[in-house]
Specification:
alpha/beta, Aspartate Aminotransferase, domain 2, seven-stranded mixed beta sheet, binds 4'-deoxy-4'-aminopyridoxal-5'-phosphate
């Protein structure tokens, strides 16, 4: 496998040449919260794959639902006046759990396409309601919104912009609400307000009549699990409302229970106009994402009539819809969102935040089942390591792999997002491994 991979595969977000020299880790099986490699070693999947496997790996009911669907109707599209039972049922099931005022969903194959859909949908909406000048998007530095031209442009990651001539025009990036790294002398509350005011300054500089929307993840995931101070989101919402700028909550990671609410915007107490989702909705079993469209935009788009010239071959794929319906059924039957909020979430959080006592940990934060540890040589000063940024994080991540726990390193932090089915015993094992990782990294 390694030889075939080395000869023929280009890995996403990887230095393929360096990887080929080292040899990729080959993952061959997954069950519950564990994955297994080709040498038979098992790991706790502390990242749910890529923030996907919400209901745990190897759920037979999802596999059966996909197989049954593909036997019945393997593929048909939802273009040109056709539909199928699964896509209609899934759109209704999403409306049932979405915040009030969200009745309609546009389906895509994943998160990046959902974000691209938002760009086109929002600009089309403003044109349809007679305000075509509103086209600019405000996004944030260090945000991740996907890898397509639109998604990577809205994202604020410099290395991504450097490849492919990004960002596309019409995007303004503002501060991220990252108190630990960028808060300076300000209190978290003041910093949250300051970062929100950056949004206001950007909109006012561009002219509100030119600004279409603000997009943000309720909690920035790939940017390092950045949980904004409580002051941030309510202020951003107020700023957007006052200027008639739409608010887009990118919930590709936070959506479908990760924060202990069905959607991260609910955790943050914010009412957006559009919500993007992917990943957890099928627990990673089938590529499916979409945009849940609030009534205002839906009415503007649909009420005006006319065609929205946008869609993907796999928009509403029958297999993806079956996977999502089966995943939602498990979430309801096992009450998993409530479990994240009131049971395993608080259980893991209390043990996770106690890791802040370790000399290497500056901050240990977690909401629901998404968290980060900021590693620092001097927590009082929130200092960075002398080594090139990210070096210590990668060392810690590699030790963690050896110890049998998958975490991700972002800068010099470790991030975690395990399946919602994690047991208390597995949570204890996980935290014990993290303790050993911290000791070994410190040494
Ligand atoms: N938005 C956010 C917030 C994400 O985290 C991601 C993926 N990590 C995306 C969009 C892109 O989703 P996908 O990889 O499914 O295209």
């Amino acid at each position: 496998w390694r030889a075939l991979d080395a000869a023929h595969h280009i890995h996403p977000f990887s230095d393929t040449k360096a990887l080929n020299a080292e040899g990729a880790r080959v993952i061959t099986r997954a069950e519950g919260v564990h994955i297994f490699d080709s040498e038979g070693k098992s790991y706790i999947d502390g990242m749910s794959g890529l923030w996907c496997s919400a209901v745990g790996h190897g759920r037979g009911a999802i596999v059966d639902a996909i197989a049954d669907q593909l036997r019945q109707l393997d593929y048909y599209n939802t273009f040109f006046k056709t539909t199928h039972p699964g896509v209609a049922e899934l759109a209704a099931a999403i409306a049932q759990v979405a915040p009030p005022g969200f009745q309609r969903t546009f389906f895509t194959s994943g998160g990046s396409e959902a974000v691209d859909t938002v760009i086109r949908m929002v600009r089309h909406y403003w044109a349809a309601v007679g305000k075509p000048s509103k086209h600019i998007f405000i996004a944030r530095r260090n945000a991740y919104h996907g890898s397509t031209m639109g998604g990577a442009s809205l994202g604020g990651m410099k290395p991504m912009h450097a490849q492919g001539g990004l960002p596309i025009p019409g995007i303004i990036h503002v501060a991220q609400p990252y108190w630990w790294g960028e808060g300076g002398d300000m209190s978290p509350e003041d910093f949250g307000l300051w970062a929100a005011q950056e949004v206001a300054r950007a909109i006012d500089a561009a002219g509100p009549e030119n600004v279409a929307a603000f997009i943000g993840e309720p909690i920035q995931g790939a940017g390092g699990v950045i949980i904004p101070p409580a002051t941030y989101w309510p202020e951003v919402q107020k700023i957007c409302r006052e200027r008639d700028v739409l608010l887009v909550s990118d919930e590709v990671i936070c959506g479908f229970g990760r924060t202990g609410e069905w959607f991260g915007c609910q955790y943050m107490g914010v009412e957006p106009d559009l919500i993007t989702f992917a990943k957890g909705v099928t627990s990673g079993t089938f590529p499916l994402g979409g945009v849940i469209v609030g009534d205002r935009v839906a009415e503007g788009l649909i009420g005006q009539g006319g065609e929205f010239h946008h869609g993907y071959t796999y928009s509403g794929h029958p297999g993806g819809c079956a996977a999502a319906l089966a995943t939602l059924k498990i979430m309801h039957e096992e009450d998993l969102v409530a479990r994240v909020k009131s049971d395993i979430g608080p259980y893991l959080q209390s043990r996770w935040t106690a890791l802040a006592e370790h000399p290497l940990v500056g901050e240990a934060r977690m909401v629901g089942l998404i968290g980060a540890l900021e590693l620092t040589p001097d927590k009082a000063r929130r200092a960075r390591f002398a080594a090139e940024e990210g070096t210590v994080g990668l060392i810690a991540r590699d030790i963690s792999f050896r110890e049998g726990l998958v975490m991700r390193a972002v800068r010099d932090s470790l991030i975690l997002a395990p399946p919602f089915t994690l047991s208390e015993g597995e949570a204890d094992d996980l935290v014990a491994i993290v303790g050993r990782v911290l000791d070994a990294t410190w040494a």
